[in-house]
Description:
This protein is of the alpha+beta class. The chain has a domain of 28 residues. The chain contains one helix and four strands, in the order H-E-E-E-E. The strands form two sheets. The protein has a two-stranded antiparallel sheet with strand order 1-2. Strands 3-4 form a two-stranded antiparallel ribbon. A hairpin with a 2-residue loop joins strand 3 and strand 4.
Amino acid sequence: MAVPKRKTSRSRRRKRIASNSVLTLPNVQDCEQCGEPKQAHRVCPSCGFYKGRQIIQVKNQF
Length: 62
């Protein structure tokens, strides 16, 4: 069984753990129909279109 020769230091261990937990922001694109920002590969929350088709009915908010 492989055994480490020296104890891993706290800073080295924390650096390794911190590099694995980097969060990424979602990709934002402009909607083709209304021009509002939306997440990629998702229905536009403002107009309800996805890939040129109306998927959901969105009520006008006034």
